[in-house]
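Fig. S4 source data, part A: sequence.
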Amino acid sequence: MEKKQIDLKWPLVGNAHITEFLGKSIANSRVSSTYIFNGPDNLGKTTLANYFAQVLLCERRENDSITPCGVCSSCHGFLNSPEDLELDSVNSDFHILRKEKDKKKISVEQVRNFIRKLNLSSFSGGYKIGIIKHADALSTEAANALLKTLEEPKKEVVVILVTQNSEVLPQTIISRSQLLNFRLVKTDLIYDYLVNNYGVSRGEAKKFSRLALGRPALALKFFEDIEFRENYENRVNLFLGFLDQDINGRLQAIEEAIGKKTQGQESVQIVKRTLEVWQGVIRDFLLLFYNHNNIIQHYQVEENGRQNFSAADLLYWQNLCREGESNLQNNVNPKLVLENIAINI
């Protein structure tokens, strides 16, 4: 029996084991009813989930083909719609569920509405696809409602749960799903991706590929989104500025960074991202302390050079940041979380 050739030219950098598996599943007509795309953010999980849906919903795809035609009305909708848009208008057999703005959890009402849409008859007579973004934010009630659907899957209905941490999902959901673990991508692959696909200069590609820490979508965002990159660099510089400021200067800097009008989950997310950046900066100072300059993430740390603090100081600061993340989870005021770190550095 002739072995079917698997095309790996899917929109994913690295993680060839994922595209190989999905390609074989489509080519051999063994598509599962539920998938979990698990791994850190900015690896391309949602992009791949959308492309997988595009392949399955393509109106002119041959049965054993693993790539979409790119010209039918369904493909045209996918190719011309922003990824973060609610894509019901793209294809009536494709639905995305995401956490509502300023909410901590995906509610049971959202999941029930999502299930209702998937239970409707397919418009094209083929697959119906549902993607749940940030599935680790499912409330207990929402997860239980979803489980009832997964226990008795309908033919040609595919649900994809995209998550950073599959371990927070109920084991009963994991056991009924095909779990695909996405891994961080090697820096040189990200470098080549930026240079060859987007014409990024070699200097910028080196900087962005190191800055992204194995996350190609993040590296591309650093290149394409100037405002995003500036916000990131401001968080780096906020921490570095602490090293030369007294307590009053640090508190003032935090006030300016967060903004008086920022509230609710928006404030929580800003502080969460800030803590992630700060931990990366502290990690770089540890690497610098032990002379591992070649794997430092932030060029600003290299420019800042070796400082007058010990490894014990740096580890203490790391613990402060981790404690801050825990406090955020326990609903401590986000501004107070940063102020506590600034005071104790």
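Fig. S4 source data, part B ends here. The radius of gyration is 22 Å.
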